[in-house]
């Protein structure tokens, strides 16, 4: 069983940057697909980005392509989300999730992921 803990959220002005971290314990993320999701008040949780533990392939939702970068450390104990050129519409709680054996077509599906962190708040002011 893997435990996930997010950090790095905060308040930033539009155009600024933040880096979120997802630290794993109990297992390494090398055998998992790790994803970031976000949820704004009154909205459904939505996929942001994912990275394969094996091979490191990355995936992004269209609205963050070119602005956000998902990466991992060499030991696969931590996955990062570098967020640049932030916009007020990026404001949300950001969650890290992990699961084994997620196929490409299900990467963006919330219920595919069994392991979740508690979330970290990102607020972007205009």
Provide an overview of this structure.
The protein is an all-beta fold. It contains no helices and 11 strands. The chain has strands at residues 3-7, 10-13, 18-25, 33-39, 46-52, 58-60, 68-72, 78-83, 92-99, 115-116, 120-125. The strands form 2 sheets. Strands 2, 4, 5, 6, 9, 10 and 11 form a 7-stranded mixed sheet that branches. It has a 4-stranded antiparallel sheet with strand order 1-3-8-7, with no helix packed on it. The chain is globular and about 40 Å long. The N and C termini lie far apart (40 Å). 33% of the residues are buried.
Strands, helices and their partners?
Elements: E1 3-7, E2 10-13, E3 18-25, E4 33-39, E5 46-52, E6 58-60, E7 68-72, E8 78-83, E9 92-99, E10 115-116, E11 120-125
Parallel strand pairs: 2-11
Antiparallel strand pairs: 1-3, 3-8, 4-5, 4-9, 5-6, 7-8, 9-10, 9-11
Secondary-structure-derived class:
mainly beta
| Termini gap | 40 Å
* Average pLDDT, all residues: 96
Question: How much strand?
Answer: over 45%
Spans where pLDDT lies below 50 across 5 or more residues: none
Assembly type of the chains comes to: single chain
Helix content: under 10%
Biggest beta-sheet profile: 7 strands, mixed
Q: How many H/I helices?
A: 0
Described by the principal axes of the CA atoms, the overall outline is globular
What is the strand tally? 11
Q: Sketch the topology as an H/E string, one letter per element.
A: EEEEEEEEEEE
Gyration radius over CA: 13 Å
Observed structural traits:
126 residues, mainly beta, seven-stranded mixed sheet, four-stranded antiparallel sheet, 11 strands, globular
């Amino acid at each position: 069983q893997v435990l996930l803990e997010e950090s790095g959220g905060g308040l930033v002005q539009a155009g600024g940057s933040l880096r979120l971290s997802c630290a794993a314990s109990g297992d390494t993320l090398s055998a998992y697909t790790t994803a970031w999701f976000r949820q704004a008040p009154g909205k459904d949780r939505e996929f942001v980005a994912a990275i394969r533990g094996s091979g490191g392939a990355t995936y992004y939702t269209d609205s963050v392509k070119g602005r956000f970068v998902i990466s991992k450390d060499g030991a696969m104990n931590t996955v990062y989300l570098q967020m640049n050129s932030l916009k007020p519409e990026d404001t949300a709680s950001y969650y890290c999730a992990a699961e084994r054996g997620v196929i490409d077509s299900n990467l963006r599906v919330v219920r595919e992921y069994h392991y979740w962190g508690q979330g970290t708040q990102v607020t972007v002011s205009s």
